[in-house]
Amino acid sequence: MNEKSFREHLRKFLSWDSAHLAWNTALAGVPAKHRGVRPSGAPHSAWELLEHVRIAQWDLLEYSRNPKHASPEFPSGYWPKNPAPPSSVAWDHSVKAFERDLADMGRLAADERIDLTAAIPGRSGETYLREILILADHNAYHLGQFVLLRRLLGAWKKK
Fold it and tell me: Within a domain: residue 159?
């Protein structure tokens, strides 16, 4: 596999739906009444999961492209304060920000000017490839939780 093909696979890996569904499918049509609900036994609401993946993804992206970026405090800075979104506008904004940052990380992966195996300037040895793979792994982990949560809430359309 040549480098360009590898980069394209890596870019697609961030959002494809080959091994599981894509985030845009999981996020589509979540009823407003369910967004802030934690079903019995579930530690998080849909809002909490969405905000968590959005914040973590934004942090990984900024960490990769901005040497002056300071990550939020862990773990409190990676989770919203409340289980429910303050409004439908906040939900929509979070979805759009998540999708934008995911696309931006995909563009970073595809950028042939960036050596994916090189240490990120200003960091402590982490590489671009490491950050991309962490983002994909973290998103996949929470995607499974998100789908299960929707099923527990009865807010998942069966196909």
Answer: no
